[in-house]
Design goal:
Mean pLDDT of chain B: 92
Order of helices and strands of chain A: HHHHHH
CATH topology of chain A: Fumarate Reductase Iron-sulfur Protein, Chain B, domain 2
Largest sheet of chain A: none
Strand content of chain B: 5-15%
CATH architecture of chain A: Orthogonal Bundle
Number of domains of chain B: 4
Number of helices of chain B: 28
CATH superfamily of chain A: Alpha-helical ferredoxin
Strand order of the largest sheet of chain B: 2-1-3-4
Structural class of chain B: mainly alpha
CATH class of chain A: Mainly Alpha
Strand content of chain A: under 5%
Mean pLDDT of chain A: 90
Largest interface: A-B, 28 and 33 residues
Number of strands of chain B: 8
Oligomer: heterodimer
Number of domains of chain A: 1
Low-confidence stretches of chain B: none
Largest sheet of chain B: 4 strands, parallel
Number of helices of chain A: 6
Shape of chain B: elongated
Helix content of chain A: 40-55%
Radius of gyration of chain A: 15 Å
Number of strands of chain A: 0
Structural class of chain A: mainly alpha
Distance between the termini of chain B: 93 Å
């Protein structure tokens, strides 16, 4: 086949029946404000770690809520827990505790 | 006749408590680390012991710190503690004169009135009888106050009382009954023999119409002995264990032993020294402002002692250190909580290998704004402006991206992870060869000062700006703006910086002082120490703090912490500025 420099995107279909929502459930129990996140991305914009690497808290939250767990452990380990996101969050999500709970959930698995 | 069966409960109880105390003391001392042990034995025979004895007298008997808090409460504690000791000492002297020998059984002075009735021909007997009555009256006045405290606790400056456990209630009732029982026993005996001092004699003569006075008196002597014995037997298992523990605590503290990062023998001793008085409860903002009632230090220390620390309550604390400031025993409550957090959370599950290794040019001063300062850009702008004005050879270390100082991780108990961040920052700062590190964030300041191994001077910007001003590098012009200064927890109680910001502000504005300032200052509610509290509770604390800060109707609210500025900004009805902004606004170069 001739390579035109384009390729097909991978299948982005998410099967909620198959996906494992263990982490989401665990985090939700430990920090109820987890579910009020509107994924606006303010946290990601202000993130200290985000200045140096592509750590994206908004994506992380979405990934967990969808049950796409394979990259969560690696992603969450980048957080420096500095707490800027907590102050910036317009929904008052207790982001630091969300991170702590994600770490716990990941380690339990 | 110097023996009667009824002395047994007391004597056995006394032997038990003495043996137990010796055993516990030996264990606490033997489990100290080698360095601590060395300190202990090295200082034991020096002037420090005398100072410790003085402190024991002032704190364990006079209860000076409680006096400062509330005189009535102080008197109550003093009358019972000092009075009881006086009863023992004077009683011993008296019994020696009465018996004519120095070797008396230990129960003899306690039950002297039962054994010796005929006071004729004994020197000083009138004096001693009345003196003992006076001391008993002194103790009883304290006991009466203790009864009253149940019903009218507000008179003693107590708003909230901690929940008591069953054994604590039991020993309290026993303590309340000991001295009234003694009074009745002595009075009844006095009524039988027609003697007694001004108190026991008078009450005795009132009792003289009662039938069977002899049998009645004997019953009360039994009850008195049983109550004493019971007190000694339950003491180790209750909060009253603080009585012996605090004495050893004061000695060890005087010898330079402190609670550090691990749960050492000294930390254990501190836990046992907690009298569960609940003074921390009234001072806790989470209690009085946010109505959270189950996590205060009194409960926390109790849970450590019982080995039942609940993680949720452990993390539900702002580590503001206000309780510690008011603790009459001086337990390092913040350190205790941090120790437990470390036990729970000090595992490594973070990788910071993405962080760049940054080298900065050689300068005199390194400026580290900190994460929070980047959220309040006015502060860093002002700092840069001041640096430029003063002509300082500086480098803004984290102008494009901050590597966190590590304190937030430490507050969560993750020390090992924090070390990695610390190492990165240390390397960067060292690479500059600077002599001074200036930071705008008290959270960073505390960790730089205490944890980082840098051989340079670390200054918070309040200190640095004062230094610049004193060296005439910047000139601050005065104004007549009425301002109130909010002490950030980490800068004030955390790092003992109270004077510098006030001096600096004094040059620029008209400074107003409020009731809860300096050591008693209020937390803004934004603390990173608490990971459990939701935003509604935080807002309640912020609102209350704002209300108290702005009571005197100032024009301006000044703080020295970006986090406080951000948090208080929500509820402040007047303009809120960081100290750097105030100075930058009043520059006159």
């Amino acid at each position: 086949m001739i390579n035109f420099g384009y390729s097909l995107s991978n299948d982005r279909q998410i099967d909620f029946d198959k996906n494992d929502l263990k982490i989401a459930r665990f985090v939700n129990q430990g920090e109820p404000t987890f579910k009020i996140c509107i994924a606006c991305g303010t946290c990601t914009a202000t993130c200290s770690a985000g200045q140096f690497t592509d750590f994206n808290f908004r994506k992380l939250m979405i990934m967990i809520k969808r049950g796409e767990d394979h990259k969560v452990k690696e992603e969450v380990s980048k957080c420096m827990l500095c707490g800027k996101c907590t102050l910036a969050c317009p929904r008052n999500v207790n982001t630091r505790n969300v991170i702590i709970n994600i770490k716990k959930a990941v380690n339990l698995k | 006749m110097k023996f009667d069966l009824f002395v047994l409960p007391f004597t056995v109880g006394l032997a038990f408590i003495l043996l137990y105390t010796v055993y516990r003391f030996a264990r606490w001392i033997s489990k100290l680390s080698f360095a601590e042990k060395k300190k202990f034995w090295l200082w034991l025979f020096t002037h420090k012991t005398i100072l410790a004895i003085k402190e024991v007298f002032m704190e364990c008997l006079i209860h000076r710190k409680i006096y400062k808090n509330n005189p009535l409460l102080g008197y109550m504690h003093m009358s019972i503690a000092l009075g009881w000791l006086a009863l023992i000492v004077v009683g011993n002297l008296e019994s020696r004169i009465y018996s004519g020998t120095h070797l008396n059984p230990p129960y003899f002075p306690i039950f002297l009135r039962f054994f010796v009735h005929d006071h004729h021909g004994i020197p000083w007997s009138f004096f001693f009888t009345n003196l003992m009555d006076l001391i008993l009256l002194f103790v009883l006045s304290g006991i009466i106050l203790a009864y009253l405290k149940r019903a009218f606790s507000f008179l003693f400056g107590i708003k909230r009382k901690p929940r008591r456990r069953i054994q604590d209630i039991m020993i309290m009732i026993i303590l309340w009954s000991i001295f009234p029982l003694r009074l009745f026993a002595e009075s009844l005996t006095a009524s039988v023999y027609g003697n007694g001092g001004f108190l026991t004699g008078t009450i005795g003569s009132m009792f003289s119409y009662l039938p069977y006075p002899n049998e009645l008196a004997y019953t009360f002597w039994w009850l008195y002995s049983i109550s004493l014995g019971a007190f000694f037997f339950v003491l180790p298992f209750t909060r009253y264990m603080h009585i012996p523990a605090e004495i050893l605590l004061i000695f060890m503290r005087r010898f330079g032993i402190h609670t550090e990062k691990k749960y050492t023998s000294f930390a254990d001793l501190e836990v046992y020294s907690c009298p569960k008085c609940g003074m921390c409860m009234d001072k806790c903002q989470m209690g009085f402002a946010a109505n959270v009632k189950d996590m205060q230090s009194v409960y926390f220390i109790q849970s450590v002692r019982r080995n039942k620390v609940e993680e949720q309550k452990l993390y539900n604390c702002m580590i503001c250190g206000r309780c510690q400031e008011f603790c009459p025993v001086g337990i390092s409550l913040n350190d205790q909580r941090m120790i437990q957090r470390r036990l729970v959370a000090d595992v490594v599950d973070a990788k910071f290998d993405y962080l760049p290794e940054k080298v900065i040019p050689a300068v005199d001063v390194v400026y580290f704004a900190g994460c929070m300062t980047h959220l309040t850009p006015a502060i860093k702008k002002s700092m840069v402006e001041i640096f430029e004005q003063a002509g300082v050879n500086y480098n803004f270390m984290d102008a494009d991206g901050t590597i966190c100082c590590g304190r937030p991780l430490m507050l969560a108990g993750k020390d090992t992870e924090a070390r990695e961040l610390q190492k990165r920052n240390e390397d960067t700062i060292r690479s500059s060869g600077a002599k001074i590190l200036v930071t705008s964030c008290p959270i960073c300041y505390k960790v730089f000062k205490e944890e980082y191994k840098l051989d340079i001077e670390i200054m918070h910007h309040t200190q640095y700006l004062l230094k610049l001003s004193n060296e005439n590098k910047i000139k601050v012009k005065p104004s007549d703006v009425l301002a109130v200064y909010h002490d950030p927890c980490e800068l004030g109680r955390g790092s003992d910086v109270y004077k510098e910001p006030r001096k600096l502000l004094g040059k620029a504005v008209n400074l107003q002082e409020i009731k809860n300032s300096k050591e008693k200052s209020l937390c803004c509610g934004g603390s990173l120490g608490n990971t459990q509290m939701n935003s509604f509770k935080r807002d309640m604390i912020t609102e209350d703090a704002c209300k108290q800060l702005l009571k005197g109707n100032p024009d301006l609210l000044v703080t020295a912490c970006p986090l406080c500025k951000k948090t208080l900004g929500k509820y402040a009805t007047v303009e809120i500025k960081d100290i750097a902004e105030v100075v930058a606004g009043q520059l006159n170069n």
